[in-house]
């Protein structure tokens, strides 16, 4: 195997161009650049309303999900691809700040229903005036078809990412075990 092939970062044929991973690397560079800008936007949105980025995301998720029905910690954690323990800690901070309310679940006392308080709703409405033009600018190059395609692709990538990270952990653990033997 040539040294160039030993440094290839992907082997799946669909991700290679004529046996090269250059286009895949270019995709990742662009993805990381855009992802970094999204993180910057999220941090600015959160700071605008005095929250941390995770608290901002959790509050938005509660607001959107509660409009469609009951929402609890597990639903928020699943939607945001976060652990339930982390969401619980952050929700408790939002409750203490008066931005989120917790009510006991009607039929399952182990669960709670979450909702954004009137104060939290006022903050989110103020924030939306900033989000609209920034998000429009971030995604200005997409038409409806692009948006639909990207949305589906991102959903599939997000679902598969956790499994890929578990694979990385397993490979590293195996290498460490082999090095000890």
From TrEMBL:
Domain HTH marR-type: 20-159
GO biological process, one term: response to stress
Pfam families: MarR_2
InterPro entries: HTH_MarR-typ, MarR/SlyA-like, WH-like_DNA-bd_sf, WH_DNA-bd_sf
Record field: transmembrane: none
GO molecular function annotation: DNA binding; DNA-binding transcription factor activity
SMART domains in the record: HTH_MARR
Keyword set, alphabetical order: DNA-binding
PANTHER family, per database record: HTH-TYPE TRANSCRIPTIONAL REPRESSOR YETL (PTHR33164:SF43), TRANSCRIPTIONAL REGULATOR, MARR FAMILY (PTHR33164)
Name under which the protein is recorded: DNA-binding transcriptional regulator, MarR family
Organism, as annotated: Bosea lupini
């Amino acid at each position: 195997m040539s040294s160039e092939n030993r440094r290839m970062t992907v082997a799946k044929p669909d991700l290679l161009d004529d046996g090269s991973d250059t286009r895949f690397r270019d995709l990742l560079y662009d993805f990381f650049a855009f992802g970094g800008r999204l993180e910057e936007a999220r941090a600015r949105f959160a700071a605008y309303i005095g929250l941390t980025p995770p608290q901002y995301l959790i509050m938005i998720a509660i607001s959107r999900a509660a409009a469609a029905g009951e929402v609890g910690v597990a639903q928020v954690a699943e939607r945001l691809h976060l652990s339930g323990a982390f969401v619980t800690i952050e929700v408790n901070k939002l409750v203490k700040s008066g931005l989120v309310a917790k009510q006991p679940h009607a039929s399952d006392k182990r669960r709670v229903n979450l909702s954004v308080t009137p104060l939290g709703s006022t903050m989110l409405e103020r924030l939306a005036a900033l989000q609209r033009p920034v998000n429009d600018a971030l995604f200005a190059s997409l038409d409806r078809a692009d948006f639909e395609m990207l949305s589906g692709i991102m959903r599939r990538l997000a679902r598969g990412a956790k499994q890929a990270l578990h694979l990385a952990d397993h490979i590293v653990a195996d290498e460490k075990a082999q090095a000890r033997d």
